[in-house]
Amino acid sequence: MNLKPLSTIFNRPLGKLAVGSVGGYTIVLLLSPVMTRLYTPEEFGQFAIFSSIVAVASVFMSLSLELGILSAKRRSEASRYAFLAVATVVVMTLAMCMVLLLLDGLGVTLGLPRWVQALAVLSCLIASLTSIAINWSIYSRNSNLAARAIFSSLSGRSVMQVGLGYLYGGLWGLAIGEIAGRFLALSVAINQRIKYSLKLLTTRKKLTSADSAAIRPYAFYITPSAAIDTALVWLPAPLFSIFFGPLAGGLVAMTQRFGSVPLTILNQSLGQLFHRRTAEKLGSDNAYLLRFVLLYFGGFLFLTIIAVFLLIWQGEAIFRLLLGEAWSNTYIAAIALAPLYFFQFVSLLTNRVILVAGRANIKLLTSFAQLCALFFSVFYAKSMNFPWETALFGAAVCLALTQGLTILYAFNLLHQKNDGGRPAPSAVEN
Q: What range does the record give for the signal peptide (predicted)?
């Protein structure tokens, strides 16, 4: 075996990020059988509401401005996006606290205790700052630091939740473990650069017209689209928990745990680097991007087919052995959601093409169509008194079809002729 090419691969940015992501995901997988014996499906169903709030709200916390760091052509432009993202997180954290106080005054609980809602705000703050720090590290070509932060985020939360589950259990262990793991990731991502971070916030005193122009497309198009995409990943579990009972929600949440983590891995490694490559090549070398996406599409299609056949053949026995008797029906949710996850994996790349091409408005429309498809399918299934299994299959099919149309639109963009070497358009036209 020739170790030199292998070491070369792992020393590249993608290799480093992949190692950190895969390592973290391995810890998640290894600890999942332990967690299912410390927490019940009902507790996971309730925690799914907390997780979905954090996942969706975190997108709004920074208005997705950290994506501007990756699209930046110059370091000064990247610094501006970093400053705007951090400042926006601070403002949105205060706004989120005000909203929760208002909802509390109106008697709206969101299905969670007040202390859990407070932890959700804190989790959003930490997650948003960590994302900004990781994107800055990727832009600065410090892939080692980004990889360590990703590993800490993925593995730290599971380790903390297992430890607290053993000591205390319940929703408290899941929520506090989430906070502790995210804080660990943030401390790694900052990596003793707190002075630089504070300088970033304090050196600029007012918002310029250029800052306003940079924020506008993110606020109107990119952030709502990203929030909807995040909701499409996280909402099925709480929706099924609310409409079909905590058991169904817990089974969907566990499937989501297995599916969303690799999505996160690829988004924070291959997705981020593909974003940079698309910004460099779109419009000048579309054929390269198209070949890469098609190869990626074919590889995941093959893996999805293998996974579905394996789940149909031995899925119930596998989940019973790994997670325990109470979780054996998780295989049904996994089969139902497999086509949807396949399209979501592909969209990690095609969405970058759409955004870098300056078609954020189109992306927003397609994301909204998918959200409507999710709610319509769930509400219709509930009104017809379908069992949760039928409802989940129906929702997954509707979402997969609408996601597929978005992917076809991205392929159409890549099929367009090159323009003779014009620099690739940014996701934001300044």
A: none
Cβ atoms of 140 and 193 closer than 8 Å: no
Low-confidence ranges of the chain (pLDDT < 50): 1-10, 205, 419-430
Gap between the Cα atoms of 42 and 194, Å rounded: 40
Q: What is the pLDDT of residue 111?
A: 66
Distance of alpha carbon 61 from alpha carbon 77, whole angstroms: 20
- Work out whether the CA dihedral 75, 149, 222, 413 comes out positive or negative: positive
Query: Any residues with CB less than 8 A from the CB of 373 and at least 6 apart, and which?
Result: 395, 398, 399, 401, 402
Helices (H) and strands (E) in the chain, counts: 18, 0
Buried b (16+ CB within 10 A) or exposed e, 216-230: ebbeebbbbbbbbbb
63's torsion region: left (phi>0), alpha (psi -120 to 50) or beta? left
- C-alpha distances (whole Å) from 75 to each of 9, 140, 189, 207, 345 are 26, 9, 19, 19, 30
3-class SS of residue 144: helix
Indicate the pTM of the whole model: 0.67
Q: What is the pLDDT of residues 155-187, one digit of tens each?
A: 888 889 898 888 887 888 888 998 988 888 888
**What are the tens digits of pLDDT across the range 98-127?**
888 887 777 766 667 778 888 888 998 998
SS3 419: coil
Helix (H, G, I), strand (E, B) or coil at 340: helix
Residue 119 contacts residue 159 (beta carbons within 8 Å): no
Residue 111's region, left for phi above 0, alpha for psi from -120 to 50, else beta, is: left
Rounded CA gap, 209 and 217, in Å? 14
User: Residue 296's Cα: distance from chain center in Å?
Assistant: 19
Give the per-residue pLDDT at 232.
77
Cβ contact 342:306 at 8 Å: no
Q: Where are the alpha helices (DSSP H) in 218-285?
A: 223-234, 236-244, 246-266, 272-281
Q: How far apart are CA 268 and CA 287, in angstroms?
A: 24
- Which one, of 45, 128, 372, 90, lies nearest residue 228 by Cα? 372
Helix (H) or strand (E) holding 122: helix 114-139
The whole-number pLDDT of residue 13 equals 61
User: Which ranges constitute the DSSP H helices of 2-142?
Assistant: 3-11, 13-38, 41-62, 66-71, 75-105, 114-139
Q: Within a 10 A sphere around the Cβ of 302, how many other Cβ atoms? A: 10
The residue with tokens 């304090």 is 202
d(CA 59, CA 133): 15
